[in-house]
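haha ok so turns out i had the wrong file open the whole time. this is the CORRECT one, sorry everyone. sequence first:
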Amino acid sequence: MYNALTNVKAHSQNELVKEEREMNNKIEKLVHTLKQSYNGYPWYGDSLIKKMSTVNFNIVNKTLPNSNNSIATIIQHMINWRVFVIEKMIGNQTIDINIVSKKDWANIIINTELEWTVLIKKLSSTQNKIIEILEEQMVNTDLNNKVTGEDYSLEYLLNGIIQHDIYHAGQIGLLHAHLKTI
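then structure:
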């Protein structure tokens, strides 16, 4: 009986170690993907920061015909959703963003190169905070847990913000390509 109980305990400990290792691998993959898409070398082309480094602040307020979104507005939109993610990661139940609201698409005008730099620093700050939270909770975070006040998991939310960033990086690239020729 003692051996059977010992085997059960050992098996349970092994399962916990395995689950923890898998969780760490998921978190490490998310952190890696966040870093790659933001300022690394993603398979699809330039990272967000690489794209942003080619943008002259003089065009960040311009829009294309039949569009309301400038590069600055898109960056602020990305910041808004990253703040939402950060707040959800730390358990804030009250944060919410209604689609196509001012919290979603805030109107922003960049007048100086310093303002442009500050906006990019805000974006970088959200990147660093998301990664910091993930890395600090690497051992005990359960990515399958529901996000506070929502009906989806933390893993789903984090994958969503990565996809959101990639989508808007492409949008910024296209907008920049058109605006610099106008």
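The mean pLDDT is 87.
again sry for the mixup
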